[in-house]
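tmp note - Branched-chain-amino-acid aminotransferase
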Amino acid sequence: MALWRSVGTGTLEGFSRVADLHASKLTVKLAKTLKPIPHHDTLTFGNTMSDHMLVADFEPRSGWSAPRIIPHGPLSIDVASSCVQYGTTVFEGMKAFIGPDGQPRLFRPDMNMARLARSAERMALPPFNTSQVLTLIKKLIEVDQRWIPAISGYSLYVRPTLLGTQMSLAVAASDHATLCVMLSPTGPYFRSAAKPISVIAVSETVRAWPGGTGGHKVALNYSPGFLPLRVAQKQGYQQILWLLGDDMKVTEAGAMNIFVVVRRDDGDFDLITPPLDGTILPGVTRDSILALGKAHTAGETTLPGLSRSTLLHTKEKTFTIPDLQRWYAEGKLVEAFGAGTAVIIASIGKIGYKGEDMVLPEHEGGLGPIAQAFRKRILDVQEGRESWNGWGVSFADL
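out:
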């Protein structure tokens, strides 16, 4: 049993003792007919679902229901539910891989679970035991393990989603919720994965703002960007470089964290990404790049394809579109790339702003040497070819 404070009416109603989420109560109902596995060349991100999903419900008087694995299909949600009317939906993005031992693996899942809990708290949704959610995710993946592509660069995308299901039009927090975990086999996020993407810097609309929810994985962070993205694509760009404030601070690229590589006067490189100021999502890939960059420069590891003399000075630092223009004009902006779970790393080859383009150097294979070094090391850890700081977690260790 766990204590939970009900905020369903927008006021504190004291504490009640309710059931926590327990993987030991899991029930499994397998699909009578399994779907054929599509050829990996046909996979596009998020468009193919596996055979099963995991569901659990929260009700304020009794707490969490027994979780259940059932055939993948629609949920029954009233149109008056909080998630429909007020967007009380949070989610996570993870990936499962097959290691050399044939066992499924996850990449730094503790960070995903912690972020899911923070996002739920920010949206005043019911809490849950993150270790139990991770155990349930493991069990779901084991049921649908055949859906994990055994090809490097491909994976089984894991989408835990928490929906506020309070049936009321009252403008208040939802004290009912449904947790659902879906699985989707996927390959490269961008179909032309070997080619750099183009972005256009936009300040007329913003992805996030100080005091908002930009630092959390909330559904409503994403949908307001759909129309600006459509406009950008009509102008010939693939993604948006989101700017914020009168000084035109760079925040994110599309739904990705952004990194730039700037050559220093001493010949080293600054690896710069915006700081976590509440408008930036604390990405797992972002954190991994920063940690690996620091370890490489400290001599604790050598990133693939880079020499020991290639020093990367990692910086979480605010920079602006005028900074990018100045570095570009001086010939110091050598690489830019987006980072995230779905894409891992996507090279940025062109940055448009007010009718002018900054075109970055082209590299064989699309990625610059520094971006390529990070992508290869992260992928090697994810797929079990290398180990680093316990990041790649085999199911045998969960």
